[in-house]
Amino acid sequence: MHKIVLGLLVVFALMACNIPQKSQDNKVDVEASQSTDKMEWWRNDRFGMFIHFGLYSQCEGYWKDESIGGIGEWIFKHAKIPVDEYKELANTFTCENMDVDAWAKLAKESGMKYVVITTKHHDGFALFHSKVNDFNVVDATPYSKDIIAEFVEACRKYDLKIGFYYSQYQDWSYQGAGGNNWDKPYAWSKEGFKNYMDEKALPQVRELLTNYGKIDMIWFDTPGKMKKEESEAFLNLAKDVQPKIIVSGRVGNDVGDYVQMEDNDLPKRRPDFDWEAPVTMNHTWAYKRDDHHWKSAGYMLWQLTYSAAMGGNYLLNIGPKGDGSVPQESVNRLKVIGDWMKVNSEVIYEADPSPFVNAFNWGGITHKGNKLYLNITDWPKRQLSIFGLQNKVNKAYFLASGDAVETSREGEYLVLALPDEAPDRNATVVVLEIEGEPIVNQALVQKLDGQIILESELAENTTGRMTHFGSVKKWMKPKGKLAWDFEVTQAGKFKVEVITTGFKRMAWPEKPALWDGGHKVKIVVDEQEIKGEVDKDRTEKAPHDLYNDFKVAEMGTVTIKEAGRHHLELVAETIVNSNKAGLAVRMVRLVPSK
Ligand code: FHN
Description:
alpha/beta; eight-stranded parallel β-sheet; five-stranded antiparallel β-sheet; 31 strands; globular; disordered N terminus; binds ligand FHN
């Protein structure tokens, strides 16, 4: 891939900002991963399919006629099923409507380039023939054929890269392994875990990486309390057997080749490392009969194009039913995505990320040679303005139709004249042919409509807390602050709003969002200071967040007398944490006021 040459005319914003937060599980040695070229196909391809399939798929979210909360593949744990009883699910695993070839074909037709399948999830059941443990599809089920062998063959047929998911720490049906806290003999223990590593996990990973030819990725997950040597044992084994294999960051302890974002989370600012977002189509990974919270195809196209713009990969999940058939809801959505990719895939494959480090609310930009692709998913009606692109624009047109788009300049803004209706209501691509490599001003700048949006993820953050889905997580004590430098183009009087969100776990819709209000804060804008309470004066729909709304607190007004660079700080004086959410600031917003 080409390297982007960024002309950083204004670097202060960059220096002030955090990189997206990673969970403990996700940290990786970025330098090590970037020094290798084995990532090249992965960086070029950008789009993969995740498949969660196993014994749990048969439960469809029910155990003994009772609906069980949480994600489908966790039913074993959430319903506290005794291990012996859970294992009986193997007796009915007939996969009578499974067509693994069709899974791979679906991935191919949807424009996906790689597929990651659960070879063994946390329940401990293997979809492959293992010689070291008989809780596997061949030895324990009436289906009795090696599904992973079928999968590998199908992926090769459709020229898809092959990824194996393997739960290396959690194994709820093996004594001493991680995660089982309801069936006593199976609880984690130090010696038990060592035994599990030596007798099951490492030998199974060896089997997986030895018996099926070239494997492109191994997708480890939830390292839990594994020590660094233990993570390294998996890493080294994988690399010994398959030198070019890509190892996911959730192998744990800062080893691995790339960062997996938290499930369903996308960064607000472009990371400078390799990352991937694993994403569900509804709430669950494995099939659940009652989970009807399907994301729209348009939303998923936003996620795909946004991920590419942010330099990351999009791993979109399907959860086949217990009989192996793919839910029609998933097939329908993938058809829309596939059709879109047939016309627009050049904006994804081998495309460089956006030259801008900050995100846009209308979509995202990808880049190839002298072309910038504006992937517009949230249609801005009539005009789209982009601050800070310094290059001359030679030509602008819709990718799908070739029809010209009129552009003009308003100061540092490039303004595109657009029709009222989006030509493609899911995602319309406008191509800008520019002179030379993109040169951009990275400043955090006032929007053309006058608003100044200061996102927590873009702040200098001395709270000691990370952000989670864009909001500061667990800011429970009044220490530290958020601060931003920003560029004002239209001076004047502004209403100051502090926006907080609850933390709703997307995967568990039954659980209410945790949120606290009533915090006392101080806002300092240059030399002006206002104090107020952060509560919920009103709520607003949060863009691109399906599960949390914005709680807007009105703090008063400030006057910014001159255009130019300014500074804002949010300092907490008291923080309420009765719901264990604390001061979950998502952004400070300055809205022009008369
Ligand atoms: O616990 C798993 C979960 O079941 C699912 O496999 C996801 C996919 O990213 N990973 C873990 C939670 O992050």
